[in-house]
Structures are given as structure tokens and as C-alpha cells.
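From the shared-data thread, chain only:
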Amino acid sequence: MDGVVQYFPKISQFYDWLKPSWKCPLSVDIRTKIKNKHMLLKQYLVTQNVEFLHKYKRLRNQIRKITRSIHKAEQNEVARTTKTNPKIGLALKIKLH
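Structure, as C-alpha cells:
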């Protein structure tokens, strides 16, 4: 029995080393928009219909605008808290990266 414990590796759980799926958590509606964007792109590639391409581009630009505004709001929050409490502002800055 000692040999089994000594020479066989212990089983690790898959979720122990799994990274989180979203570095920056997004709301459900943004994730559904991203899913729809991928779906529209696939439809365009299969059918070569220009209407799908226009819908894809419109949705792509909307998602980009939303995610940039979220990132900008986070950066403004870091800047605002750094002035009042530098330690907390630094912790937020490290957390965001």
C-alpha cells in the first residue's frame, strides 16, 4: 500500500486549474449579442448573402462600442479611487489587468 501512495500520482480535479471563462465578466445581453454576431458571420460565410454581412458589421460595431465603454468606466473608477485612497486604487488597477 505504501508503494501505491508513493508512486502513483494523486488525482487532481479539473476545476482546480481551469481558468475562468471571462476575464472581465459581461452581462447576459452582451454575451447573447456576441453569440448572435458569430451566428451571423457563419450564415454569411455559408450563403454569401450581403444582408447577413451588413447585420454582422452593425452588431460587431455595437459590441465594440459597449465593451470599450465598460473598459473606460473601469479605468475612470481606478483613477477616481486612486486620488482618495492610493492603496485601493492600486489594488483595482492590478485586478483589472
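The chain has a mean pLDDT of 82.
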